[in-house]
Design brief:
This protein is 31% helix and 19% strand. By secondary structure, the protein is of the alpha/beta class. The chain has 2 domains: 2-113, no CATH class; 131-424, P-loop containing nucleotide triphosphate hydrolases (Rossmann fold). The strands form 4 sheets. A 6-stranded mixed sheet has the order 5-8-9-10-7-6, with helices on one face. A 6-stranded parallel sheet has the order 13-12-14-15-11-16, sandwiched between helices. A hairpin with a 4-residue loop joins strand 8 and strand 9. The mean pLDDT is 84.
Length: 425
């Protein structure tokens, strides 16, 4: 195990950071203990629950599996087999994230498990959708739920006070919708026998955001989250072409350039390519980030079109005007900054680890809104999966925080080809 840690410790990838962290932790644990205590097991203090013990197997003769090459993986496997033979009274399980080692262990009949503690949710659970649509329509929502309803108006908002058996799958900040009845409301307060719902603003027809209208209840809810002063953190998931970046930029412009709620818009994303790296890029930080900002430029081009279909994004004066308000930043240079009066967009959030996203979220100063966009089906980072990536952790951890909201967009807005590609491939 120590050889494997030593092999992986160099570099800037996440596995190298993890290896260095484990080595430091082992160093701290073994700093003030003697050989006898190492043999008996080093106590590991925990914040809650019983304390554990770290045991180092002190063997004078390490044996390998004769049929396999002499490698750290195979020696770990051989020691697991030996331990299982010697300790028939104990349950011996090999835990590893290495898929190849798991396959070898299964072939040798050794009980093997994946490391599960870093998972935001299990494979059987899907990521929160953030929206509960009651399909029966025609007011069936209230009949199905059998709740007492009291409606009143508070500060230009229509509020529904519900008492009775509140559904167990409701959570703070989710949208409850009855599409046929045209009812869409956000859960603002939740108790065992009480819930307070606030009627959502309709951005489909009357109101618009920077001239953009919503096309379904999921997009309408996304606009409600993006335009709500009470929501500090918004996570928007969805497959390619569902309008995540387009809608978020429209909301950012509305609140930065029109209503002046924020002073600046900062756009960042993980600079990870789908295939081979193209090497070092010349220029300033913004110029280096430019190749990764194709989605940003495409959406700017669409948002700044006039009635004749001409875009002013290529216009030098427009770029200069927006340049003072719109900043493109590399996530690696965000540490240590405090962002005040800022609308921060983190694109491709599924490629960040939970720790990396934490370092970005904690940049928020006063009057700052953070929007994370991503699609857990498009992870390009090794060692991250749909339920261990930063976006999944963020959605799960902030589920019951009243100033956060999440929505998963469904309908693809690009073209019939993009829709077919999403379904068939």
């Amino acid at each position: 195990v120590l050889e494997e840690l030593d092999k992986h410790k160099n570099g800037i990838r996440e596995i190298a950071r993890s290896a260095r962290q484990v080595s430091r932790t082992l160093s701290d644990l073994t700093a003030d203990v003697g050989l006898e205590q190492i043999r008996d097991g080093i106590p590991i203090a925990r914040l809650n629950g019983p304390e554990g013990r770290l045991r180092l197997l002190c063997y004078s003769d390490l044996s390998g599996l004769e049929t396999l090459d002499d490698s750290p993986d195979n020696r770990i496997l051989a020691e697991t087999c030996r331990l299982r033979r010697e300790r028939s009274d104990a349950s011996v399980i090999l835990i590893t994230k290495d898929i190849n080692l798991r396959v070898k262990a299964a072939a040798l009949g050794v009980p093997v498990e994946d490391y599960l503690t870093d998972r935001a949710f299990t494979d059987s659970d899907a990521m929160l959708e953030g929206v509960h649509v009651y399909p029966n329509g025609g007011g069936e929502l209230w009949n199905d739920l059998a709740l007492d309803v009291r409606v009143e108006r508070e500060h230009r908002h229509v509020i529904y006070h519900l008492t009775g058996e509140i559904p167990a799958d409701w959570h703070l900040g989710m949208l409850v919708a009855d599409t046929e009845a045209g009812f869409e409301a956000v859960v603002r307060e939740l108790g065992e026998r009480y819930a307070r719902l606030e009627l959502a603003t309709n951005y489909r027809h009357g109101a618009s955001v920077w001239g953009v209208h919503a096309s379904d209840c999921h997009q309408n809810f996304a606009f409600n989250l993006l335009m709500d002063d009470d929501i500090d953190l918004v996570t928007i998931a969805g497959s390619a072409g569902t309008g995540k970046t387009f809608m978020t930029l429209a909301a950012a412009f509305q609140q930065t350039l029109d209503s002046k709620r924020f002073e600046r818009l900062v756009f960042t994303r993980a600079p990870i390519s789908m295939s081979e790296d193209i090497g070092f890029l010349p220029g300033t930080e913004e110029e280096k980030m430019s190749p990764w900002m194709g989605a940003f430029h495409d959406n700017m081009d669409n948002l700044l079109r006039n009635e004749d279909g001409e875009s002013s994004w290529e216009n030098g004066a427009t770029r200069q005007l927006l340049g003072a308000r719109v900043q493109i930043r590399a996530p690696g240079f965000m540490r240590g900054r405090t962002l005040n009066d800022t609308f921060l967009i983190i694109d491709e959030a599924q490629n960040f680890t939970p720790k990396q996203l934490k370092s970005l979220i904690t940049r928020a100063g006063r009057n700052t809104k953070i929007v994370c966009l991503g699609n857990v089906g498009q992870i390009d980072t090794p060692y991250l999966t749909a339920n261990t990536c930063g976006m999944a952790a963020l959605v799960q951890r902030f589920r019951d925080w009243p100033h956060a909201g999440h929505v998963t967009l469904k309908s693809v807005e690009r073209s019939r080809l993009a829709l077919a590609g999403e379904e068939l491939l």
